Amino acid sequence: MNDWHPTTVAAVLPAAEDLTELVLDISGTPLVGHHRMPGQFVRLSLPEVGESMFAIASAPEPSGTRWEFLLKGSSLLSERLIALEPGARVYSKQPEGQGFPLPLARGRGLLLFAVGSGISPIRSVIESIRRERGAYGQVTLYFGARTPRAFAYEDELRHWEEAGIRVVRTVSQPGDSDWQGLTGYVQAHLNEEPVENTVAFLCGQSSMVKGVIEALCARGLPREAVHLNY
């Protein structure tokens, strides 16, 4: 495992319904400084279980020593990672993928779309924008979840809005909850969203991605202005 590096679990925290935040300490490893673009993925491994790719939810930092992830217990590896205690060892490779082309959004409007755990790499974008908010135009996040309790980073939404990031939330299965907000899929709520001089970043299920791309293109946004993080 020469290209694998041992990292340490710093925290495992509940994030939302069926979602858990995992924080890894990468200090003292060659991994520091290699997360360069929001939206990149990292291959994590537990030797006795296997390996898989996970999007980094924290913003890139040249000398940052912590990586944050949002996990859904949908695989044996995810379940084992969620069950770890602080101090446990997790092996990681260097970040992969092109991520989201954030420099293309400078001086322009930015539309962000995420569903469920797909908010993880989009959060990395938002945290990057907050550090240099004046470099970007209007930023709107369309955030969908299955139920009202399934929105990750609930306690951060206010900070995002205070930074001038508009947050539009919608629930696909409100059930008998007291949810009073929007319902349905994110692409159904674009309304009169302006798309001139705008780029869009998407992360979520393929059906959402397809629906959002179709809706944006129908509004006049060129397909080349729509970006995925893979």
Automatic annotation (TrEMBL):
GO terms for biological process: pyrimidine nucleotide biosynthetic process. SUPFAM superfamilies: Ferredoxin reductase-like, C-terminal NADP-linked domain, Riboflavin synthase domain-like. One of its GO terms (molecular function) is oxidoreductase activity. It comes from the Bacteria. It holds the Pfam family NAD_binding_1. Residues 2-102 form the FAD-binding FR-type domain. InterPro entries: Cyt_c3_hydrogenase_gsu, FAD-bd_FR_type, Flavoprot_Pyr_Nucl_cyt_Rdtase, FNR_nucleotide-bd, OxRdtase_FAD/NAD-bd, Riboflavin_synthase-like_b-brl. This is Heterodisulfide reductase, cytochrome reductase subunit. It comes from Cystobacter fuscus (strain ATCC 25194 / DSM 2262 / NBRC 100088 / M29). The lineage of its organism: Bacteria, Pseudomonadati, Myxococcota, Myxococcia, Myxococcales.
